[in-house]
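Course assignment 3, question 2. Fill in each field.
Student: A.L.
Task: Predict the tertiary structure for the chain below.
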Amino acid sequence: MDALLDFDWIYATLNETDIDSVCAAFEQLPDVDAARLIHDALRLSAHVLTNHKDQLRTQLCGRLAGVEIAGIATLLAHVSEHADSAWLKPVLTTMPRVG
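Answer field:
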């Protein structure tokens, strides 16, 4: 399960497959808060990520910002520190939130 909470795994899997495959991997997990919220964020972002996989960082930060769960905080910290190109990081939660 730890791989599913890792941004690098999510990013690589999305780029090798599609958003439906990434979401399907999360659906196989037991109901763990962090995994469920990441899955919800990905599902809510599917309409964007289908055609714009490069928006993964922005979508995750915009939908998960402010969530006080250890796995989410770690994921978001990893997203921010491993940005390999310019991207828009939401500073306010303006997207529909998960949960």
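Instructor remarks: Residues 2-81 form one domain. The longest helix spans residues 33-49.
Grade: pending
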